[in-house]
Structure to design on (345 residues):
């Protein structure tokens, strides 16, 4: 079976760089959604705990429960709890995101919540003008408001929306702080930065940063010397299933889209789009060791001009993503959970 290795030294190196930017491990909330960006939820949670990370961000209640033993604080981005977080143990570590005013009445009394506010991305979150109404409803519902946050749409681009969102958030902090006093929700936790925002600015002022792609070493930020020091931690290898000698003119794979220009050795490897090898890499992909793909990627197979037993498919999702015309995030999250992951180092 194709398999994945995770480089713990690189992960810790990235976390060292991130810790310098947040001024403390306790201000890092490691984003583990979507199977830790394809790296493996439990594998990454284990390494993060060993490093001393105490906060995590996930998408669902199920993910939160799976990593509850590894962290003190877990923020769920998009799910509604089945039980109140007043419950002891695991449930008390979990905080839930309010993405919309109407959602407030769905939370059981006593649930710990954080309020997401729209500062110009226009995806999730209440409007700034709805802040007071949100506090009132949260109070009435008997929820415990712990934090206020927003998300950037353009932190990795030169774009004035980034500054607009920052100034909206700073304004909102003041109003929220006075509302928190009135409703007895003090102190509130404020956070707005994803990886790009954390690396881009030199004025990190929040209580926490939600860091995903930088921890996995694949943040792309032009002319940023700190981002340039990050190291990808994930490598994918495929195993050879068969080898043949191909004669000039013979074709390979579905629809015969590859034709050998000369006699060559071809092997078929056990990594296909069913495992997460994006099909748009068909015919144009070249591995980090310079091995060319031949023909279309099929569900469980892909063919390369190689006879190696184990073939490194990629060790930098940023580079691999370019072949597929996408971003590292998609290249990584495409990797199926059933691929075996092992931690090196
Ligand atoms: C995914 C996500 C992040 C992490 O973003 P990166 O660019 O990977 O650092 C942070 N906050 C929210 C709300 C997210 O959905």
């Amino acid at each position: 079976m194709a398999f994945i290795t995770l480089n713990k030294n690189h992960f810790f190196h990235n976390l060292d760089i991130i810790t310098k930017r947040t001024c403390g491990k306790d201000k890092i909330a490691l984003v583990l959604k979507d199977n830790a960006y394809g790296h493996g939820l439990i594998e990454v949670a284990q390494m993060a705990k060993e490093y001393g990370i105490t906060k995590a961000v996930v998408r669902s209640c199920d993910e939160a429960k799976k990593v509850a033993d590894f962290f003190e604080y877990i923020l769920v981005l998009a799910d509604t709890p089945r039980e109140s977080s007043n419950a002891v143990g695991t449930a008390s570590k979990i905080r839930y995101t309010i993405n919309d005013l109407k959602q407030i009445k769905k939370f059981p009394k006593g649930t710990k919540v954080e309020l997401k506010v729209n500062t110009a991305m226009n995806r999730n979150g209440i409007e700034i003008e709805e802040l007071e109404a949100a506090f009132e409803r949260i109070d009435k519902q008997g929820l415990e408001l712990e934090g206020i946050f927003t998300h950037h749409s353009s932190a990795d681009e030169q774009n004035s929306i980034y500054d607009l969102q920052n100034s909206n958030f700073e304004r909102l902090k003041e109003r929220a702080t006075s509302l928190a006093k009135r409703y007895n929700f003090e102190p509130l936790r404020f956070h707005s930065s994803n990886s790009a925002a954390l690396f881009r600015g030199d004025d990190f002022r929040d209580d926490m940063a939600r860091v995903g792609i930088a921890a996995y070493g694949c943040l792309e930020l032009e002319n940023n010397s700190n981002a340039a020091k990050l190291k990808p931690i994930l490598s994918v290898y495929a195993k050879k299933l068969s080898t043949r000698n191909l004669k000039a003119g013979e074709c390979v794979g579905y629809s015969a889209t590859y034709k050998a220009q000369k006699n060559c050795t071809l092997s078929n490897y056990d990594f296909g789009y069913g495992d997460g090898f994006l099909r748009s890499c068909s015919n144009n992909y070249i591995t980090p060791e310079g091995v060319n793909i031949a023909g279309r990627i099929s569900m469980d197979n892909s063919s390369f001009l190689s006879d190696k037993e184990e073939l490194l498919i990629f060790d930098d999702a940023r580079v691999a993503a370019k072949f597929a015309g996408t971003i590292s995030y998609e290249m990584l999250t495409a990797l199926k959970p059933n691929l075996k992951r092992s931690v090196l180092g």
About this structure: The chain has ten helices and 17 strands. The chain has two domains: 8-220, 234-344. The pocket of pyridoxal-5'-phosphate is lined by residues 31, 33, 77, 151, 194-196, 210-214 (CB under 6 Å).
